[in-house]
Each structure stands twice: as C-alpha cells, then as structure tokens.
C-alpha cells in the first residue's frame, strides 16, 4: 500500500528501503464462495467454475503460502473443502469442479452464506478474503450489503468475480461498495484474476516510515 501512496503523492525525494522498514506478508486465507442456485444457465455457471479454476491457479502460483477453502450455497451453505485441506493446485481444482448446480433450489441466500462464514471463526490469518462467484440476481441487496459491512468490521474482506453473461454486474458492484473489489471476466479473458491473486501478498511497514525517510 505504501507504494501506492508513494506514486500518488509524488514523494520522489523519499527513498524507501523495504528491507529495513517493511516486511512482506504472504500469510493469507481465501474462501471461494460459489452460488449454485438453479436460476442460472449451465453455460454461465460453467464460466464461473472456470473462473474459480483460474483463481486457484493464479493465487497458488503467485503466493504458495495462501490457503484456499471453498463453500457452495443455494439456500444453505455446504463446505467443499477447508482452508487447511490441501495446498495442491490440481486437488483443489478437481474438488471445485465437481460442484453442480442445485437443481431443486432457485433461491440463493447470499446473506445467510456470508453470515455463516463471518460467525464461524474460520479465519486465523492476517489477511482474510472471501471471493464471491454468483450471477448476483438478488432481491435482498440490503441484507447482503449489511453482511459485507459486518464482515469488513471483522477484517474479512469480500470480493466478487463478475463472470458469465447472466451476471448482474450492477447488483454485484452495489453490494461490494468499492469498484476495486470486483473483478471482471469477459469471454475467455481471465486477466483480472491476476490482480485478485496479488491481494494475497502485501507489505507491512512501520507507521513512521515516511518521517524516517525524509
């Protein structure tokens, strides 16, 4: 984050020596949350599964220290694999791709899924992320928005991947409240997921870093 401030404020006279003032933190935990309601086309659902596969590949390649867990949900939440289940990319992808659309359920209770994750004490990392994959055709946006705000207060940050032609991008962007928290997948272009992976690493700098380098 300090590098962003360095560019924004033009602090060219300050020489930042990362090795002395900042440490790279790679410990992150990421939960993938997949909406399996039956109110979505199989083609678009498969696009979201592909986005999950690419997300796993990007995260584990960029940051092998990141732990990935996964849940699926329609009206109820189901665990696909835990955060500590495997570090193997192929195993994680294989398990994720086995999740099918919930034929009997046309409802996606996203707020309930987010609440369950928030209240279950699943995270014990310094960076805790939930990545939502859904067509976002919700009619309870206020409830979802509330859960995202409550999660943020507990240092759980919710991101969204807009994948599939049936995805309501306005709904997804609206509840995330920050355009940088949404990653677009268009056609077969999954480039944005590299940026998502990069969030799993960050520099932790001393509070007085700018004063020290003046």
UniProtKB/TrEMBL annotation:
Cross-referenced InterPro entries: VWF_A, vWFA_dom_sf
A Pfam match: VWA
Domain VWFA: 29-200
Protein name in UniProt: VWFA domain-containing protein
């Amino acid at each position: 984050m300090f590098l962003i401030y360095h560019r924004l404020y033009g602090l060219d006279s300050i020489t930042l020596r990362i090795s002395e003032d900042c440490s790279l933190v790679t410990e992150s935990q990421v939960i993938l949350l997949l909406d399996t309601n039956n109110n979505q086309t199989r083609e678009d659902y498969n696009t979201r599964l592909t986005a999950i596969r690419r997300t796993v590949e990007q995260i584990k390649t960029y940051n092998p220290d990141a732990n990935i867990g996964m849940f699926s949900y329609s009206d109820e939440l189901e665990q696909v694999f835990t955060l500590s289940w495997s570090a193997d990319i192929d195993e994680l992808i294989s398990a994720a791709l086995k999740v099918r659309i919930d034929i009997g359920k046309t409802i996606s209770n996203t707020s309930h899924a987010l609440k369950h994750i928030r209240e279950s004490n699943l995270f014990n990392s310094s960076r805790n992320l939930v990545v939502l994959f859904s067509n976002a055709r919700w009619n309870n946006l206020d409830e979802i928005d509330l859960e995202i705000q409550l999660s943020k207060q507990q240092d759980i940050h919710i991101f969204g991947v807009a994948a599939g032609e049936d995805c309501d991008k306005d709904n997804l962007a609206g509840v995330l409240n920050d355009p940088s928290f949404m990653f677009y997948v268009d056609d077969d272009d999954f480039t944005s997921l590299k940026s998502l992976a990069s969030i799993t690493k960050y520099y932790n700098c001393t509070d007085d870093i700018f004063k020290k380098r003046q």
